[in-house]
Amino acid sequence: MKAKSLKGKTINDIETSLKSLPPDFKPTLAFVFLSIKQDRKAISDLLDKFGISVFGATTNGEFIDEDYEQGTIAILLLNINPNYFFIQFSEFNGKDDRQITSTLAKEAIARFDDPAFIIMGSNLQTDVEEILAGFTDVLGSEANIVGGMAGDDHTFKDQFVFTNGKSSNHALISLLLDQNKIAVVGRATHGWKAVGTEKVITRSEGSRVYTIDNTPALDVCLRYSGLKADNPQLINEFVTNFPLQLQREKGTPLMRPQYQVFWEDHSMLTSGKLPEGSKVKFSLPPDFDVIEKVVEENTKMKIEENLDADALIIYNCGGRLMSLGPLLSEEIKGMKEVWNVPMVGMFSNAEIGRTPNGNLEMHNLTTCWVVLKEKE
């Protein structure tokens, strides 16, 4: 499999790059990550004219190397045999999304006996844990699924996924890959350090946490962080410096940052469900160790899987961009140096994958990556 990365600020930049491709490189598939400000239909139509299938999403920032930006278009072109992949596109309704993804899973195993999935969803109200459950209901807990949720330049208003002739702000796009032909290996790592003793979620409903250790959730967070309730940057401080970590019996703890306060009862919303009885710890404010941990996990995965990649796709949480700022250039650079192949990446609203030795889960404040390699 051959791959090539492109980046531009306008559709004309991309068209010029496409016309300049080597004659012996005939891409069949494009990962397209772009700003909500860009014309996704025009880009999709352009790639369609070149006979290229589109797997696309809007982002909170996009990159093909360590120089990330907002407002641009980043593309990874691949010349995969069209018989080795298939793109599914399904609208969600917020009611039976689990059944919708179960149907997608059944369609996938009817097409390939051993499919892998790269998925992206749109809409902040989408219950990612439910859509993953729909897949695993059919495929089992070991299903090979990786991906993320679309962004919108951190406006948190409207996100889109799209493919040839289709686009939606409440849908899932799923790229099926035949694992008999293409190796698909993904991993999720956040690198954040936990601190202090475990605390118990004593009252919650879904992602709304009322009490921790029988104390209002906000009061516990204020006490730990030392922040004042009237701090105008309170939520940003919780997300970027003092996020919660959900402790797991298997695998790395999951990041579950607090992102909304209900002042009437001092409850809080977190980025994923925290069931009653689950245990959490707070995180230390991030430093360069967070970056080093992600790069180390890439190196470890490459050695353990004995894998030489043809291409690399990165889903990096938009919250990490807020937390780590320019340090993220070093993380992306380190990952690129580990694999040394064409890549594309985006800053997402959530990440999907497995931590080392962990289950398939939704993540936040996490870097998730997937490497592709055509088998001999």
Q: Structural class given helices, strands, pairing?
A: alpha+beta
Number of helices: 9
Q: Note the beta-strand portion.
A: 35-45%
Oligomer: single chain
How many domain units? 2
User: Percent of residues in helical segments?
Assistant: 25-40%
Give the overall pLDDT as a whole number: 95
Ends apart, CA distance between termini:
10 Å
The whole-angstrom Rg is: 20 Å
Largest sheet report: 8 strands, antiparallel
Count of individual beta strands: 25
The unreliable regions are none
Described by the principal axes of the CA atoms, the overall outline is globular
Keywords:
2 domains; single chain; alpha+beta; 376 residues; eight-stranded antiparallel β-sheet; six-stranded mixed β-sheet; Immunoglobulin-like
Summarize this entry quickly.
With 376 residues, the protein is α+β, with helices and mostly antiparallel strands. It is 27% helix and 36% strand.
Task: Explain how this protein is built.
The protein is of the alpha+beta class and 376 residues long. Helix content is 27%, strand content 36%. The protein has helices at residues 11-19, 40-49, 97-111, 128-139, 217-225, 234-241, 288-305, 318-324, 327-339; strands spanning 3-8, 29-34, 53-58, 62-63, 73-78, 85-91, 115-121, 145-149, 161-163, 166-168, 171-178, 182-189, 194-205, 208-212, 215-216, 244-246, 254-256, 258-262, 267-270, 279-283, 311-317, 343-348, 350-354, 360-363, 367-374. The strands form four sheets. Strands 13, 14, 15, 16, 17, 18, 19 and 20 form an eight-stranded antiparallel β-sheet that branches. The chain is globular.
